[in-house]
Design brief:
The chain is an all-alpha fold. The protein has a single domain, classed as Triphosphoribosyl-dephospho-CoA protein. The chain is 68% helix and 0% strand. The chain contains 15 helices and no strands. Helix 3 packs across helix 4 and helix 4 packs across helix 5.
Length: 314
Amino acid sequence: MDSNSKAEHIAKCLELAILLEASAHKPGNVSVVTNFESTHYEHFLASAVATRASFEYAAERGIAVSMGKICLSDIGIGYTIKECVADISAWQHGGNTLLGTVILVSPIAAAAGMTPAKGIYEIAELRENLKLVIESTTPEDAVNVYEAIKTANPSGLGKAPKLDVNDPESTNQILAEKTSLFEVFKIAEKYDTICSEWVNNYPVTFDLAYPRLTKQLGNKDDPNRAIIQVFLEVLVECPDTFIARKTSLEKAREISSKAREILELGGLGTSRGKESLNNFDQQLRKASNLLNPGTTADIIAAALSLCVLGGYRP
């Protein structure tokens, strides 16, 4: 597989992963059978398609690193994220759909580019390269991600104690103090799972979601069921920080407890579990999407990316 074909293959894998995640009927999220008032399933389809060019570019940059043509700090993950979010915004009118997913998956694209493979990737080696990509980010990467966040305009952003994205002086400070994107995300890791994944080499994605998805996808013909099952398992273990930002950490933990109750009833494997899951889904949708477990969905998309890069096909 030549460099161009490899980058295209990686982008296709990541696009498929996002489509699979978006389609699954996860509680409290947009899916093939459920919409929000202003954000619909079609917006996620358009967004997934819009990511492909940026993921291919990130893969190309990773390939260039593996060939010694550029150094790690020249990959430009921040630029990839900014361009990807801009493309998503241009392709649909449903608002912020994939910001967290793009932030998680863009470095995976670059790391896959760095990793030798013939269509199927060794996930442990990819993870090692992912750590290198993220720890080599620059202040310019941070500024580009700030611009991406402003473009996406996510709800529940709140005010950060330091280098707040809504403070116009933050980008000047980042450049003046030479603060890398990795260092910026370290500031937010305690209250944002996406940032925590970045700075800790994706523990929830690789150590929790990915192995459980691999098992579930291997056991079931229906990827929708597998994705919902693991979505609930991740939600139980990791209270959703998107919910916490919009409401409170106490509320996020309450939602995790209810997800645990569904699993204890058998989840999709029993009639009581299915009934409880349906009620849970309706409950999460009642409060103007304040209880949307969006960060959990982002983690699932990243884990599905690993599954598809590792050879899974629906």
